[in-house]
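Why predict the complex rather than its parts? Because the way molecules touch one another can change local conformation, and only a joint prediction can capture that. The input here totals 718 residues.
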Amino acid sequence: MSGDPILTVDRLMMRFGGIVAVNELSFTAERRKITALIGPNGAGKTTVFNCITGFYRPSGGAIRLTNDDGRTMQLERLGDFRITKQAKVARTFQNIRLFPGMTALENLMVAQHNALMRASGLTLLGLIGAPSWRAAEERAIELARTWLDRVGLLSRADDAAGNLAYGDQRRLEIARAMCTEPVLLCLDEPAAGLNARESGGLNELLLSIRNEQGTSILLIEHDMSVVMEISDHVVVMDYGVKIAEGSPQAVRDDPKVIAAYLGADEEEAIAVMESGT
Amino acid sequence: MSATSARPSHAAQPSGSAFILKKALISAAVALVLFSLMIGIRTEAGPQGGLIYWTRFGDLAALVGTVFGGSIIIELLRQWWGPVDKEHIVPKPVQAAMSFAGRWLAPALLVFAFLVPVIFYNQRYILDLSILVLTYVMLGWGLNVVVGLAGLLDLGYVAFYAVGAYSYALLATNFGLSFWVCLPLAGILAAFWGVLLGFPVLRLRGDYLAIVTLAFGEIIRLVIINWQSLTGGPNGVSGIPRPTLFGIPLDNSDDGLAAKLGIDFSPTHRIVFLFYLILAMALLTNWVTIRLRRLPIGRAWEALREDEVACRALGINVTTTKLTAFATGAMFGGFAGAFFATRQGFISPESFTFQESALVLAIVVLGGMGSQLGVALAALTMIGGFELFRGFDQYRMLVFGIAMVLLMIWRPRGLIGHRAPTVFLERNQAISSDLVKEGHG
Ligand SMILES: Nc1ncnc2c1ncn2[C@@H]1O[C@H](COP(=O)(O)OP(=O)(O)OP(=O)(O)O)[C@@H](O)[C@H]1O
Ligand SMILES: [Mg+2]
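Output of the joint prediction:
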């Protein structure tokens, strides 16, 4: 672990009444790297995401984001929409949350809300159709078009998001998150429900996001082929605590990890063990 | 592939002629059981005090037959016309005719609206009615921002209408300010109250939001009734100045418009002026709303209606977005209120009851939430229809209740249920209403 962390999670605690969903969890995510967060069902992975992206207020601990220019932000104090707006952390959801009644293009336009809001002079310039606003809108459409193209949905731009196939919706949600121009992208099980071909395409997309945009990625994933193939670093959780971390190979061979998966679900354990062979 | 996977429910919807016949037979059987006693046999006290009865099997048969036939017709209509989540089996020419009407209806209505004072110049009743319809069109369009776009169910919209009306009435009668100065003030004040209402309801959803907004509407009305020293209480405010054409009064005085133009004075001038005034105000509301929909704020409203959690994940400030929706809707309500005050010349709390809120909300829901044309059509039908049935006072509500229930069966998402996208790359295609969310609160 050499040191240019973008995200430092420090002894994060999250309690729900008596349940301790996340217990003294500490890990870091490196800049321009793909960090995977894995663990059996109910391990507390989504809860960690919800704390990082401000949907839950942590019961304890600190979440620090270090910007490219070295400034740090305490995400647990920022809260809610400011985490995306100011700290530039974007996320997707385990159960896709698009705007189903809006077109794919509109979904990506909504993602650029804050930039466009500024360009429209808090609506006033936009209302009178000022040229500066028009230009900004053109640029926003262009950015949206670029991302639609990258996720292979350009031909579906004018279709309602709710009408897209499942795999397409997953990719559209990633494109939408990228349209907020984040420094850290948090993906909650992006490969869930994808077939082998689609998840291969997803791997390429995520690698290209890391390499071309330089966006750091934090990834929750059950699909071990995805985790093993693209992640630079893996953090393994079980019952809210970290049980292992390291390179994909190291984690895969770790007896504690195998035991955790065996205890939880035989199929998943076999998937972990077989993914290397 | 996506088209079929997204609409899995269709296979389960029965539609064949066997199904229609079966349904009609069941309805007829139920009607037979019910009506055989109610209509088939009639009893009366005889002249000797005994009970006499006679049968009316002819009437009974006719009624059961009507139910049978009616059931078939309704079922056929249902399948041709919607409900919108069903596969349409509308014949091609009908579809073409409908899309043609859809394209030309709005411009035709607009042209017609401009010509109303010309066509009906001598029919004061029609002019008055048109002004009323346009007032509700404007209110509907204003509420549409809150309910249709942002998906926030507001049952107290009349409060802003009242704030606008009283703002103008009080400013004009107490300080002698003119209509044109007061109009923006009325809008600003109403928007201010919209924000005030917005704050406490930010965290509320659905039913809770509806209840609090309903209470807000009542509170404003009760304050107006009880704050006698300012508002005149139940007596209202009278002697509200009539609007002027940029300072030129529309009366028969020496410096009135008629005298200036050298034409004979007629009270119709003022009515025509009021007509064009409310038409302009309504069109302004429409223009601003259409414009806002294509701006980030309007898209954020619609996104909020679709999924609030996703909005937050995209860095959208949900609080200010909701407040701007409330404020914008309230502002238009305030404008309409100022117009109402200047048209009536007298206002009292009686004009701002919950019934008004319900009526405007009904217009928005009936029109198809979010659709500008739908709201205009709904206002025309509701207000115009109300007047048509004025002669049959007793049945008016009954007929309207039935009409609304039928409409909601056939078109549960309103007259115009689909949504037009705000931006497109290649194809500007409407989005079917079964995908569009209604909002959660
Ligand atoms: N809002 C909440 N209230 C109460 N308990 C919660 C809440 N959110 C999560 N939990 C609990 O926290 C634990 C961790 O849940 P979490 O969703 O984070 O698991 P996960 O690792 O994402 O699992 P999966 O792989 O199934 O998505 C579970 O026991 C869950 O019941
Ligand atoms: Mg999860």
